Hints:
This protein is mostly beta strands.
Amino acid sequence: MKCLGIVLLALVALSECLHRMPLIKGKTARERLMEKGKWDEYRRKHPYNPMVKFLLTGVESMTNDADLSYYGVVSIGTPPQSFIVIFDTGSSNLWVPSIYCTTSKACLNHNLFNPSLSSTFVWGSQSLSIQYGTGSMTGYLGSDVVEVGGITVSNQVFGLSHTEAEFMAEMTADGILGLAFQSIAADNVVPVFKNMVAQGLLGQPLFSVYLSSNDQKGSEVIFGGIDVSYYTGSIYWIPLSSATYWQINMDSVTINGQIVACAGGCQAIIDTGTSLIVGPNTDINNINSWLGASLNQYGEAVVNCQNIQSLPDVTFTLNGISFSVPASGYITQSYSSCYTGFGQGGTEPLWILGDVFIREYYAIFDIQNQYIGLAQAV
């Protein structure tokens, strides 16, 4: 009993070292637009390329899918000004709208940072430009105190937007907090998480992500620790193939034991900022064909809702370990239509394992040892 007491005390102490950031699963942009009867018009005006943020051109590029999104709250400045942000492991910069964003529709219905109200704000000397799939944001850099998940980061450089892409007007989130590596940050800005580690604010140099399913609450980003209640079984550790995005080797994609994509191996990103699983057009078309899906006019793969129960798992082999996603995980039903969670990424060979994958597997991002840990989510 004495040993049990020691173990319990140790677990309590560990839990106090974890910094939790609850995420809100919001109504999707698609759902809001469909309610307004404007979805078709939106898709015609804003064709979406999910691979744009992965095309390096000297500055970090990123995008937000007009689909499922998870977001939380950060505070910037003294006294703090609060913003809703998407935690994006596929980008590296923090930016929020500012009072200088006066001509973009997207800034009219979002919180705006006012640097004159913060006693700790300092202007930088560089401008900022980040490319989106449907437009871009531009602005300037400054630094201030940033609080996220109960952690206060000093002298954090972030972007203050002056212009924003029109599609951001339909998003709940005000801005983006990037969680990838500094090597792909616009203007070589030190990312928030790297500053957390450098300033000695965490018990461990890692963060973990749990994304809930079926509109349930409870999604979290945990800075500095792992919550064993979010997964079952073992954690499988996969070494990074590139410390830019959270990039790993993928051996193959199979259905019923047959290789249907990524034959001979390919590269994949674990990306919380993309809602779908995205890959090269040929591979994605083959997967969707195996699932009996057909593309509609917007490039979405539609299946017969009555066939969902009979659809097979899709298995992703990463560093020799198989991770399967069942039909319940990759099919989304919207009104009378059902869509697969596999989206075309053009001719780029890079795969994006987005929220469709991460909802199935609790993801741990170890920045010091450069590993990703994956475990079956509960």
